[in-house]
Design goal:
By secondary structure, this protein is α/β, with parallel strands linked by helices. The protein is built from 10 helices and 8 strands. It has one domain: Rossmann fold (3-Layer(aba) Sandwich), CATH 3.40.50. Pfam families: Esterase.
């Protein structure tokens, strides 16, 4: 009797440490051992393990096993920032603390583990917002940005989606909403840096965030930033779509 060949095991590692930026423990899952590192943000109020549970990691198995990509799935603090009951000015401050955690703790960790000169940042839904926002704000850190099914102005109420700051607006909010700050980018050095990034936006034709994506795409074009906008049929705002998107765009 001839036995079937064993499936190649995908390397999977769990990490946890106390974050000084957030003053709490944060968790992470790492898939693979080498290749282009991908920082993957979870969806709205989701967690570091959800991408695995939704088979999105499985959709990238072959590339992970072959050493083409290494995926770092971080946790979120959305329930403590955008979706908390704290005053709006404190919500954005908590988000900035989360950004500091990513920049000062997660990115150095990735660079220590992976010597690639490339770094992709991505996410789905609110995770796509996180990816695009941090990528455009810190263009020397990332080489590729992929935003899937994301909303780029959290201050604008939409059907079924509220203004996450209850009408409050300040400078911190302005500089963390791509559809606000991107049209105003005029610094030549910053523009040069952003233009080097491979930027992809993906959205469904029936998604509530379609106009947000079209607005950001128009703003990027206006300031001369090359990018790609892909519009899928239907809403395309579910894990079964994201499983296909990661195969095409990451």
């Amino acid at each position: 009797m001839i036995s079937a060949p064993h499936a190649v095991v995908m390397e999977r590692e769990y990490q946890k440490w106390f974050s000084p930026a957030l003053n709490r423990h944060m968790e992470m899952l790492i898939f693979g051992s080498g290749g282009v590192p991908i920082l993957f943000f979870p969806t709205r109020a989701a967690h570091f393990y959800d991408l695995e549970n939704w088979k999105i990691i499985e959709a990238m198995r072959e590339r992970i096993v072959n050493g083409e990509i290494q995926v770092f799935c971080v946790d979120s603090v959305d329930q403590e920032s955008f979706y908390s009951s704290d005053p709006p000015n404190q919500r954005i401050i908590r988000h900035l603390q989360y950004e500091r955690y990513i920049l000062k703790e997660v990115i150095p960790f990735i660079k220590k583990r992976n010597k690639s000169k490339q770094l992709t940042v991505t996410g789905c839904s609110l995770g796509g917002y996180h990816a695009v926002n941090i990528g455009l704000k810190h263009p020397t850190v990332f080489t590729k940005i992929v935003g899937m099914s994301a909303r780029y102005d959290l201050t604008k109420p939409l059907p079924f989606f509220a203004d996450l700051f209850d009408g409050y607006f300040d400078e911190n909010i302005y500089y963390n909403m791509p559809n606000h700050f991107v049209p105003g980018i005029c610094d030549k050095k910053l523009l040069q840096q952003i233009r080097k990034i491979d930027i992809t936006l993906v959205i469904g034709r029936e998604d509530s965030f379609l106009a947000d994506n079209e607005r950001l795409s128009a703003a990027l074009s206006q300031i001369g930033v090359p990018h790609k906008l892909y519009i899928w049929d239907e809403e395309a705002h579910r894990p079964r779509y994201w499983r296909e998107m990661v195969k095409l765009y990451l």
